[in-house]
Amino acid sequence: MPLTITILDDYASIVSTLPCLSLIGEHHLSIYTDCERDIDQLANRLRDTDALVLLRERTPVSAALIARLRQLKLITLNGPYPHVDVEACTSRGIVLCSEHARTSYATAELTWGLVIAAMRHIPQQMAKLKAGQWQTRAGTGLRGRTLGIYGYGRIGKQVAGYGKAFGMRVLVWSREASRAQAQADGYEVAATREALFDEADVLSVHVRLLPETRGMVTAEDLARMKPSAVFVNTSRAELVAAGALEAALRAGRPGAAALDVFESEPMLDANHPLLKLDNVVATPHLGYMERDQMNNYFSDNFKRVLAFAGGKPYGVVNPAALEAKR
Fold first, then answer.
1. Which is catalytic among the residues 99, 238, 246, 265?
2. Residue 326 pLDDT more than 60?
3. What is the spatial distance between Cα 247 and Cα 263, in angstroms, rounded to a whole number?
4. Tell me: the pLDDT tens digits for 108-144?
5. At 99, which helix (H) or strand (E)?
6. Is residue 53 exposed (0-12), middle (13-18) or buried (19+ Cβ within 10 Å)?
7. Catalytic residue among 121, 224, 285, 304
8. From the candidates 199, 236, 290, 304, which is the catalytic residue?
9. 236 in catalytic set
10. Could you give phi then psi for residue 202, rounded to 5 degrees?
11. How far apart are CA 296 and CA 185, in angstroms?
């Protein structure tokens, strides 16, 4: 029997253009490209949905919302699911499927686009050129400078490799096991966490957002950075203490920031304080928003929907839901 599948928050309207759409077959697919947070509106949109495909952590799926989705049988996504009430899903017999996301080479690549843009003042110089001005400021190169990597996971490892290719000294700080892995991979480990902030000319954060990592980068950490340094965040804005980065940039340590993430997304406020600073290069969370990455993401999810429809679900987070009576 065909399932009704719903995708929320496809801001870039990319899903309908992906090759993996052919996997859907006889099933019915609805795609929403706006951002809707009102629980009444969401409940109305999802009232006939059998399978909900979530795009990262864009829409919270609370117990209150789940209680109103009588038809829902499956939620699937890649990666962490802090925005989904797993207990509520289980009690209602809604299966939650998730597996580790593939390495986001796209995010690592965008990180370097932001680094170079910030170090060479590319957006600012483009604006000057379009205003009829020529070479108003010299930038700074990468070779021989220190790249600090905070968090040596899959993306951090890729970013470190690109830094090495640029001829940079790569300095890593992470969990103990990850530091050991970085050392085994031939990278230098910072003597202390504080030394990472002291020594980095470019400091890039690649840490998962968890309760224990929220606000982990403090005002004191940022104040340690050089006036010439660039702080880069393509992970999660909430890893930095609220308000600390804006204050640090205004104080001149670090000298610049390159950002792909904001505390509230989609961030549609053109007057956001960080966007008003000339020493900030920012993009609208484009790290993983790349065609191949999106095709892989939705291929994974559509295959899990098909497996569920065929009675052979995999990647199940809450197996008790399979036995729960609805």
1. 265
2. no
3. 16
4. 999 999 999 999 999 999 999 999 999 999 999 999 9
5. strand 95-99
6. buried
7. 285
8. 236
9. yes
10. -130, 125
11. 28
